[in-house]
Write a structure and sequence with these properties.
With 166 residues, the chain is mainly α. The chain has one domain. The protein has four helices and two strands; from the N terminus they run H-H-H-E-E-H. Helix 1 packs antiparallel against helix 4 and helix 3 runs antiparallel to helix 4. Strands 1-2 form a two-stranded antiparallel ribbon. It is rod-shaped and about 120 Å long. Helices cover 72% and strands 2% of the residues.
Length: 166
């Protein structure tokens, strides 16, 4: 009975690990980032998404600076003449607004993914780890018991008749 329970437990452990890995991969693919450091693995998806979206907004601002060239001498502030590309600046503003809208749209979805799947899977994996330690300890104790217990008598293989008549 214990062997069957242990086998089912190992199957549960494998399925939980697969669920955790797959949901983490899905979350990372949505956000377009992957953890580069073990500490990043523990951060919430919301933090990672916000970082990616902030990067996109900063990218928009950098492109906006390209579309706003300033001609003139740096030493003379009065000679600076802005020569901007209005269409490019407008496109950057629209892109920034779209990224902010996307950020607002994805925020609840990623929070739900984090709270309903990833965090409970992390908690279950922590419980599985503790249970694995206990199973290992049990197996070691069982080996020690078997090693230190007296050997059992083997059944005689001779053909002496039984007293029961069987």
């Amino acid at each position: 009975m214990f062997i069957d329970a242990e086998r089912r437990f190992k199957q549960l452990e494998q399925e939980t690990k697969k669920l955790h890995e797959d949901s983490k991969k899905y979350q990372d693919s949505i956000m377009g980032t992957t953890p580069r450091h073990p500490i990043h693995h523990m951060t919430t998806g919301l933090t990672m998404m916000t970082g990616m979206m902030t990067h996109q907004i900063e990218f928009s601002k950098a492109i906006q600076e390209i579309y706003k060239p300033i001609s003139g001498r740096v030493s003379d502030p009065n000679s600076a003449k802005p020569e901007g590309n209005a269409e490019g600046i407008k496109a950057c503003d629209e892109y920034e607004a779209a990224v902010k809208d996307l950020q607002d749209t994805l925020k609840p979805e990623l929070e739900m993914l984090e709270t309903r799947i990833i965090q409970p899977a992390n908690d279950l994996l922590a419980i599985v780890k503790q249970t694995q330690k206990m199973l290992t300890k049990r197996n070691h104790k069982l080996l020690d018991y078997d090693r230190n217990s007296p050997p059992s008598k083997p059944f005689p293989l001779d053909s002496t008749p039984d007293t029961d008549g069987w």
